[in-house]
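Q: Joint fold for the lines below.
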Amino acid sequence: MPNEPDRRVALAAYAVTKRFPGVVANDNVDFEVLGGEVHALLGENGSGKTTLCKMLTGMYQPTAGRIEVDGKSVVMHSPADAHHNGIFMVHQHFSLVERLTVAENVMLGWSLDGSRIRFKRRKAEQEVARLAEQYEMPVDAGKMIGDLSIGERQRVEILKALCRGARVLILDEPTTVLTPQEAERLFASVRGLAKAGNSVIFISHKLHEVLAVSDRVSVLRRGVMTGTVELGDHAAAVDRKELARMMVGREIELGRRQRAARAQEAATAGLEIKELVVHNDLGTLAVDRINLNVAAGEVLGVAGVAGNGQREFAEAIAGVRPRSGGEVFVGGTPVRSGRPLAALAAGMAFVPEDRMGIGLASGIDVAENLVLKSFRTGAFSRGPLIRRGRVVDNANTLLSGYELRGGPSSLVGQLSGGNAQKVLLAREMASQPKVLVIAAPTRGLDVGVTETVRKLIAEAADSGTAVVMISEDLDEVLDLADRVAVMSGGRITGIVDAEGADVEEIGLLMMGQEQAA
Amino acid sequence: MSAILPAIPIRLEKRTERTPSWVQAATPVGAFLFAFVIVTVILLAGGHNPLQSYNAMLQASVTSTSAISQTLVSATPLLLTGLAAAVAFRMGIWNIGGEGQLYIGAICASGVALAIGAHGIGLALPAMILAAMVGGALWAAIPGLLRAYLNANEILTSLMLNYTAGLLLDWLINDSNSYWRDTSGASAYLVAHGKTIPGAANWPAIGGGNFSVPFGFLVGLVLAALLFVLVRHTWLGYQLRVTADNPGVGRYAGMASKRNFVIVMLLSGAIAAIAGASQVGDFTHILDPTGLQSPQYGYTGIVVAALGRYNPLAVVISALLLGAITNAGINVQSATFPQSLTGVIEGIILFCVLGSEIFSRYRVRVGAEKATVAA
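A: Joint structure:
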């Protein structure tokens, strides 16, 4: 064992309040981070986690209350002030220069010896290598960032902070971009950092991660700190539902979908995919001869690490991207390649992973986004003119069950991610589709909206829709899907039943090892 | 390190709610007024009395019916080229070719007027407008198609075609014995010039006494209303708005985005060409290469469109404003108001209006963050 960890308070916020016009983002929040601990900060989107961290890193100043570093009250006006105090944040979007090496990135705007002019490459590389070894975060200091995996890039971000004397590291949703294996390695690194006496604030929505890595958990809800829980060695004993309740203030169902009732429907043809071949935007092969059948009423989960052809796969089925080969049938009828309208007419609904990128027009209001696929029906037209009244009525009808913040005239770009996903789902489900292709259904959404989305997927399946759910979140896939197809390198490497699936086996399939026939 | 902060912090906060409509309207107005503050400084620096200069401007442009009529004359081409630019830019299509499309419109309209003008205004006027629109649309189709199907940058291609169209104008009148050139009589070869169109093809001005509204201005007003309806209240306009906002969404929803791109280009080119037809029909009655090229109506139209935030109805107002300034420049050439100042004013106005965009997207807060804000 290393030295007894430093258990003094390293960084704290006391009675901190932050107000924005019309909103109290943090209300009288107390938050203490001890030296040598991993402290998870849990909360829904909009609960004030980001605001709190921005105050801890000098990007915002609290309206009231104080921030202490090592027991001394400090006022920080910029991230540079926070760095001065040893507080660093690793954001979800890395700030690395792809065409510079690891060592160059670590030293960017920084210097080991105070020299502002000369960059001592060898010295920098040695220092980076030393830190990488010390914290068991292997990375080649001479490599270009552009040649590194996402997990390695994240390590570079952390090393960058450590090199500059970080004692408190704030990791903002660090695992969203990682494979399960990379996430495991990150957890090990985080534990190592804590053991060496550093503090880590770990921001996450995902309960199982929080339980896996943290010493303590603090939960924020609507800007109020609802409690701090000591996990200690009893992580397994802490009730996941209890933490979830602290987050959303009500009991939520995170359990598995009931699958029993629908066995008799399984024979009906839903979606058939034969020998599908798709190329990506750069013209390289993205989907390589995939065959799949999804019965009406079935949820087929497609698991896999992002970038293994899932996006192209989904877009090609939905008709948004042309196929290079193969056929797609909806309810037995063939669908032409690269024709979104043909797919729509056949009964296809598509919720893309890139919601604001292709699913919704952010500068257009909610009501008009909701008729994106139905405006041609004539129900909303008088000659060439828009019948605005009917468009608004349609929006009110579709959104009645969704608790949307904002009305039909709100711009979609001004909605939160969760509300945008509700608009997208409301539109896609409005046509009572035969097939629903839904990618990254709950990515970036808070627990409350996640629950709504999961319920909708289950309801869609129950009403006889064939659902293809593409997600990187394996837990979610296992909770919702009947079968799990694992995608790697543009191929389906294996299909397993979700019930009683072996996670280790799925992990191996994700890494490209094909299932034994 | 920490104490380097301004004494009075000014912060920009991104607006999370929809920008209130009064802010959207007040922003360009405020920018316009601010531009005149800068102009005042420039006038003072140049040793002019700003009050005298502004007084001269007002007298030339707004304080009498004849002055207003003159302003409308200046505003007419700006309104049409402004609408042409607004409809394209609003849809995210950077048609810089209004200038060349205007020349082509003038060539087509004067050609038609020379051929059939004698048959009377009832035939000549619609024929001139139609011919101009077809010519302008075809001219604009070149960059439109190149962009839609070969991904050639429309900014560059439409700009280059302006020079091409200008050279075509010069060639028709100065360097050839074209149909447009006056080749009768000795004077025709002393100074090359175009044939005058038949009097029956002169566009009527509406009004009485010393107040008159050019026909082209009325055409512009009607177009402004039609474009407003097209963009806001038709499904074609809806598809154009969606595609402009996010081409990916257009593709996802099966909209023919390439076709829509070309449609907007055609429309924009046709409208800019009407400005050329109006120059011939309303004002000059001949094809005059210098008179068409020197005012740069096509480029000023971009300023007009930006000032009106690409809203067709607001473009009417901005065209009148810039028309008044241009008119002042033409008619008050004196020590108190040098004509070159109009270009300076237009430039400063554009600069201020584009710069003021930030106020509609962000909220500006001055002073320290207050501890008490009503929740």
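Q: Anything notable?
A: The beta strands of chain B are 10-14, 206-208, 211-213, 362-366. Residues 1-6, 369-375 of chain B have pLDDT under 50 and may be disordered.
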